[in-house]
């Protein structure tokens, strides 16, 4: 059975390569193994529930950054993008300085490990992009009285937001694709108990796990309202900032983190 230690080892390998294709493969493999691990555990948990035993979800508070940092909302959005393919739900602090993750322990570990590896990379890559000044030719559409919607130069803050949004979207797509591939592989090999017994395969095993997490969330969360995330301006997907963010998210040469506070300690702007 794949383990969270194997996932962490793959993320560490990604730090040591300068090859973007290898880094991409390491991240995809980490999510692939994490999903296989989750399938195996969910199948075991389903059997345990049938025997009167249960695996209990947990909630964990994870610090994102210091108050009043512009990057906080993007760091939260990145965690959310990582959480979705791992069946983890989150609540977000009003000022986006921390998240509360709800899920099975190994799934929360997976999310935290991938986030701690990719969040510093996102922030550092965005800061490099801003220093390059190549974003200064980007534009966005803005409404101006008497003129209607017109193209205006992109501000520095909007350029950095555009970069990070594209990075997050690309990482989320990569993780979702790796999850889907892992589900197909698990079904093809009949490596989980549900598939072996003809009970609907890996996808249904994960649906049962997700339902368990949602039930736990409803009983445990005290959140009111919903988190809206970044609400400022940004450029379209064809802008140089978006293309650069997408490329960084696609390469995602991940870095080991010094701790939960590492992302917030970076120069986040």
SSE topology sketch:
Elements: H1 4-15, H2 20-50, E1 58-63, H3 72-83, E2 89-92, E3 98-103, H4 105-132, E4 139-144, E5 148-153, H5 156-189, H6 193-196, H7 202-220, H8 240-251, H9 262-265
Antiparallel strand pairs: 1-3, 2-3, 4-5
Helix pairs in contact: 1-2, 1-4, 2-4, 2-5, 2-7, 3-4, 3-5, 4-5, 4-8, 5-8
Please provide a written account of the structure.
The protein has helices at residues 4-15, 20-50, 72-83, 105-132, 156-189, 193-196, 202-220, 240-251, 262-265, and strands spanning 58-63, 89-92, 98-103, 139-144, 148-153. The protein has a three-stranded antiparallel sheet. It has a two-stranded antiparallel sheet with strand order 4-5. The chain has one domain. The chain has nine helices and five strands. A hairpin with a 3-residue loop joins strand 4 (139-144) and strand 5. The chain has 269 residues and is mainly alpha-helical. Helix 4 (105-132) packs antiparallel against helix 5 (156-189), helix 4 (105-132) crosses helix 8 and helix 5 (156-189) runs parallel beside helix 8 (240-251). Mean pLDDT is 78; it is low at 47-54, 191-198 and 253-268. The relative contact order is 0.20.
In short:
This protein has helices spanning 4-15, 20-50, 72-83, 105-132, 156-189, 193-196, 202-220, 240-251, 262-265, and strands at 58-63, 89-92, 98-103, 139-144, 148-153.
